[in-house]
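Slide 14.
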Amino acid sequence: MRTSDFEYNLPENAIAQEPWPVRDECKLLIMDRRTGALEDRIFRDIVNYLEPGDVLVANETRVLPARLLGFKRGTGGAAEVFLLREVLGREAHTAHSAIWEVLVRPGKRLKPGAIVDFFGETAQTPTVQVAKDIEPLSGQADEEPILSAEILDFKDSSKGERIVRLTTPLASLDEAMHAVGHTPLPPYIHDYAGDEEMYQTVYSKRETSAAAPTAGLHFTPELIAQLQETGVVWKTVELQVGIDTFRIVEEDDPADHAMHTETYSVPQGVVDACNAAHAAGKRVIAVGTTSVRSLESAWDAAQGKLLARNNDSTQLFLTPGSEFHVVDGIITNFHVPRSTLMMLVSAFSTRDHIMAAYEHALASGYRFLSFGDAMFIC
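Slide 15: predicted structure.
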């Protein structure tokens, strides 16, 4: 197996630049994981492919307003700080201060000791993606910043990663982040100016992620209620999605790829529902690859069963040949070439079936990636 095995030609015009206006009216490609047989549907038709007693498991994480645009103190130069994850245990978290791992730009000018300030006007700046140049911002010379980030240390200087101390004079850091932060969009979505809530699932709860679990974007409250009325069980886990989810595998041999670490939780109620479904001959359907990784990470090989987890970490990398112990079906979007997500869905079916399905989807006008259409591998 080589990383190039998961390469395919993804035209720029196939990458969805905005969500479908009605979440559950996007396209849905049904694929039999064993035979590769395909059916074209719309997403709300998913009700016809689920049975009473089947369990849907979704990732309830919500995207942080993680993208902060500000100014380097002392020079007024434009700077960006992208929140990745809070560092627990290094210093006590208070209402006004916390330690975070972040990405910064421009990295050469943001070394330990530098401070970046964020002001209210920053929140009105149009969203600019991580891959683009930082737009210049007008400074506020005499205004007190709403939020400040002091660079404490390098995390990975080659990737622009830093450890920072966030502080605010407001009542809480949460209030400050929402006053100046933007919901981050993937680097392949350009100039989206619509409702940022469309990049959140309708069932999202705690803000813990730098990216959305996008397979869940297609569900509406009405569709979830309809599924539950038919006897489908709806459950949620939490996996804190990191920015590494957008990165492709650079190594020629996937075995050499260092999988990023993410924090996840699987409540006991999810374990009980999955066990009951399998005992009754029903299926566990993961909504998205993050739900797959949560459930399969929670499988205890030594005990041969699914266990509840609370804020555990996972680096699970599912590739062809990997065994699935919990998941019987996956609702997912269409993924970036050469990505760990392409390898995961290929592991659940076969590489040839997935590549044939993607070829069909491209020829049939399906929309790809985060704002794109959906696929049900069953």
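Speaker note: The first strand starts at residue 27 and ends at 31.
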